[in-house]
Amino acid sequence: MIKTRKNFLFSPDQTIQLMKLLRIYILLFSLSLFGVNSTLGQKGLNIKSGDWSAYLLLNKTDKLPFKLSFNKSHFTIHNADEIIKLSDYRIHQDTVIVDFPTFNSSLHFCIKNKKKLVGYWINYNKGNNYKVPFDATYGYVSRFESINNDVPKNVNGNWKVAFDYTSDKPEMSLGIFKQSDRILSGTFLTETGDYRYLEGNQYGNSLYLSCFDGSHAFLFVANSKNDTLIGRFLSGNHWEGNWMGTKDNTFKLKDPDSLTTLIKSDLFTFTLKDLQGNSFTFPNSTYKNKVVIIQIMGTWCPNCMDETRFYKELYSKYHAQGLEIISIGYEVGDTFEEYSKKISLLQKRLNLDFTFLVGGSAKKSLASEQFSMLNEVISFPTSIFIGKDGNVKRVHTGFNGPGTGSYYTEYVEKTNRLIEELLKQ
Predict the structure, then answer these.
(1) CATH number assigned to the domain with residue range 39-138, chosen from the 4 options 3.30.1340.30, 2.40.128.620, 1.10.1140.10, 1.10.645.10
(2) For 286-302, what is each residue's pLDDT tens digit?
(3) Percentage of the residues of the chain whose pLDDT score is greater than 90
(4) Under 8 Å CB-to-CB from 254, ≥6 apart: which residues?
(5) Angle between helices 406-424 and 302-318 (to 10 degrees)
(6) Which has the closest alpha carbon to 162: 153, 154, 149, 171?
(7) Contact partners, residue 288, CB within 8 Å, separation at least 6
(8) Domain residue spans of the chain
(9) For domain 157-247, which CATH number applies: 3.20.20.140, 3.40.190.10, 2.40.128.120, 3.20.20.70?
(10) pLDDT at 266
(11) For residue 169, what are the contacts with CB-CB under 8 A and spacing of at least 6?
(12) Same fold for the domain at 39-138 and the one at 157-247?
């Protein structure tokens, strides 16, 4: 007779315990393969809290620096007065993936040690292969390292700027710079929007500005001679151009209310789909005797996001009095489901109560075709303001956001006055 128990390495009780441990190990291994959704507050990362000097490597020689902070509950990216909070992350094997809260992009990095992060930034709107190397080192002194000890040239004020100035059709812009010793901030206003929050330094005759917000990765460098700036502009690792500016406190851009115009006097009407795929026709009974803003936008567009946040405030203030907003998204992707998902995510993240529709792919030509009563849609965003009588009262091209300072404040005041006037009619 064979005594089988003596042939086993472990007793039955021990075998059961080992099987339980094996199942736990398999579960943990599976989670490591597919990533764990968590928040930095729930599970700390083994890196040092405080300010970090981070940069994106745009090419072999050009680095786009930015300030990164970590406080054991979230990361923060700083661009002048802009603060971008990154609270959620997931782990895939040895890589930490931190998503931007609004834009479809992420930072991917490995923790080399408590004071060193190495990885890349990926912008999914430009495809899964659009990657820019990322590096961060603990400690922060200034955005751009000191180049020399020369007295910095004063570039404070307004500048008439031409982008791609060597071409037949340069793009005109208004540069607004604020300087305090070697610290520099500002932006560029164009007829279709602004370059948002730029921050940098002025060393001697050399100007350096940058911005990284998860959608834009802008780097501006220039040398000054007398009252002229001549420089380079890089956007991510995919585009580079030149620019020239001259000091001019009187220069103005064209009125953004004059660029896109109504060419048909008939009633403003269109038919599109809502986020569930149902047909939506404007006007309809819901909007009878209402003041309506039609916003042509995209969730990938930072200027559109600035405008959407302003419209959230506007809607909260005037909706009870009769203001309605219809936001139409033109998105990166290939299918209606992709477009709808991105718009729904924005609506949820910003807690937006007004109506959202799907325009289609992110093409101005498509928007122009769908809104053929306009001469042309030349910018995302474009907004159409409609009175209670159904007539168009204003068409506003682009959006200059809070990074433009007084220009933004003046536009907010102007728009509030318009809405109040239309509501009274």
Answers:
(1) 2.40.128.620
(2) 999 999 999 999 999 99
(3) 80
(4) 191
(5) 40
(6) 171
(7) none
(8) 39-138, 157-247, 270-424
(9) 2.40.128.120
(10) 72
(11) none
(12) yes
Structure-block tokens of residue 172: 């005109």
Phi-psi region at 139: left, alpha or beta (left = phi > 0; alpha = psi -120 to 50): left
pLDDT at 40 over 50: no
Name the residue among 377, 299, 330, 234 with its Cα closest to residue 101: 299
* Tens of pLDDT, residues 65-86: 999 999 988 999 999 999 999 9
* Residues 273, 358: Cα–Cα separation, whole Å: 6
For residue range 27-36, list pLDDT tens digits in order.
444 444 434 3
Structure tokens at 398: 């682009």
Domain 270-424 part of CATH 3.40.30.10: yes
- For the entire predicted model, the pTM comes to 0.87
